[in-house]
């Protein structure tokens, strides 16, 4: 899914650089995805227009990534089905069985309780033990003789 997706709408993407959603959006954008912010409190995030809701997004969406409280998931799932999204990706802790059922019944693939950034890094083999890509490959072990 991550290999074929091009556009990812992030529901709950924050403009605050210290928030996990911002870091994930920045990471995905840096790795070539078209990141669409969905946050009614922001006008622009990561240099892109922020939309108040999924139905307002003017382009097709491959993955809807959710950074919202679990009780918001049923409505987001309905919107994901309505816009014809390919997948509903629920970040760590975003678990709501009703929302998952709504999406699945509407033909949308559901990924629950996983971080899209972590899974992308694992999939392309760039995961450092701290969860960042150091862009350094070495077989040298420091301090060991």
Automatic annotation (TrEMBL):
Q: Which organism is it from?
A: Nonomuraea mesophila
Designated name of the protein: CoA-binding protein
For this protein, the record's PANTHER family field holds: COA-BINDING DOMAIN-CONTAINING PROTEIN, CYTOPLASMIC PROTEIN-RELATED
InterPro entries, per the entry? CoA-bd, NAD(P)-bd_dom_sf
Pfam families noted in UniProt: CoA_binding_2 (PF13380)
The superkingdom listed in its UniProt entry is: Bacteria
Q: Which residues form the CoA-binding domain?
A: 1-94
């Amino acid at each position: 899914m991550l290999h074929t997706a091009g556009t990812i709408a992030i529901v709950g993407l924050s403009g605050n650089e210290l928030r996990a959603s911002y870091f994930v959006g920045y990471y995905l954008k840096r790795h070539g995805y078209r990141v669409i912010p969905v946050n009614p409190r922001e006008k622009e995030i990561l240099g892109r227009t922020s939309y108040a809701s999924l139905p307002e997004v003017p382009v097709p969406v491959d993955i809807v990534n959710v950074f919202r409280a679990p009780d918001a998931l049923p409505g987001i799932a309905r919107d994901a089905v309505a816009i014809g999204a390919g997948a509903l990706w629920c970040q760590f802790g975003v678990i709501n069985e009703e929302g998952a059922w709504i999406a699945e019944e509407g033909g949308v693939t559901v990924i629950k309780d996983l971080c899209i950034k972590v899974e992308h890094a694992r999939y392309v083999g760039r995961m450092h033990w701290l969860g960042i890509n150091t862009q350094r490959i070495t077989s040298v072990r420091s301090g060991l003789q």
